[in-house]
Amino acid sequence: MELNTKELIAVLKSATSYLEKFDGMSERTCRTHSMPFLHHLYLNGTDVVTFNGKSYFKTSCTMGVEGLLYPHELVRMLACLKTDTVGITKNKNGFKLKYGKNHTTVPVLPCDDHPLKDGLPKPNYEVQIPANNLPDFIEGIKRCSISLDSGEDKSGWSGVTCIPGDKGLMLYSTDGISMSKYGPVDLDLGEDQVIIPSLICKQLTARQKLLDGKSVLLSFSDVYTSMTYDNTTIATMMSSEKVALDFEMVMSKYLVNKPMLFTLPESIKETMRRIQVSISKVDEKAKQIRVVGMKTSGGKLSISTQSGLSITESLDIDTDDETEASFGSSEIKKALSFTTKMGMKDDYAIFEDGKFLHFLAYTRSK
To answer: What pLDDT shows up at residue 315?
Structure first.
């Protein structure tokens, strides 16, 4: 059979990105590892499968070959070819790859004990997100992702929590420093509460353009959550024990005496770029802290850094009230990239843009 060279490279690269990576381990060691499926692609004749113990990836690619393929050398070789198509013929050691008048044998290891040889277990329930509802859902996931906790030990904080509301689905997230809220989204996931794990959130936002006009199937079980579109499935293995905060109860105390919000000037992104450049030039100790000071007074917003840079922006409000706070530069940069309005009060700040609300605690360290 013949396959398009560029399409084959794209499939192999996508699948390879999910392979387990061990720092300092040679390719030879990876090939002879006691669990070779961690470092090899599993071919079942019609699909390419990757499973690294934490995440699972499967996409259709009819190669007519079964077994474990170490993909790195093959990808490098295919990238050097100038032919639009390559031929694949199965043999006893793997398959013969034909390109032009040349051919080479690519070894494939036998595999009878792959843990997911028969695919993922049957999910507890599934929900199809229609193409017309998917863009707003992904936008909510994208915005709430700025408050995702990167730690793996806090299962309840490792994703975006989806809770049905009176007007639609509400999305929430927190990392213990910030908290995000987006909604309502015109969508029903069929459960009182669903947590979309971080990996699935990242895959949805990374494929936002690719998924335009398509629907996505979300599957939930006690051991995994997966997303499926076209002929591709991506899953993350996770514990079934998750505890989500009562986000509305936590947020209500901030909204009782909501600070005055001011519209951020259009030049704020350029200001933050200059701030980041300034921070990158400070010494190593300050780099670890990366604190940005912010002050509002007399219709002005002043932003300063530890390295001495200070920039003042004009606001659309005129008030004598002064508010001063310090934030981590990465947190403030992410918040400003998604919002148009901001307000500071007591020990927190609120950022707002349409259906999106973001709460950020002050940074105490100097």
So the answer is: 75
